[in-house]
Predict the 3D structure of the following.
Amino acid sequence: MIEDFFTHPVESAVALSGASLRNVKYWTERHQIPTRKRGRRIYYDERGIALLRLARAATATGILGGRYLDWIADEVWNRSDRDPDLRLAFAEALAPLGLADLARPRPRNPA
């Protein structure tokens, strides 16, 4: 049996991320955060909760825009880049912080 790591219901995702239900639903759709549905309830895993927290912090501080959060989500879930130029822009934005290596391409896991 495959263990299911989607243990946080949407209400818990709202509480843990500190965001509104509306924002959680928007970010889930916008950044294609994987969820599982059981009955009428939607569940998130730890990575989804972490990205929701990041989205809330980024929005509150204005540090990262939606495109950068898309790129981070793609990296977390090993999806191919939707916007190849974004990786270069992200590396340039991180360079003054000495973090440009975070935007370096890494091998994808075969799915």
Q: What stands out?
A: The first helix runs from residue 10 to 17.
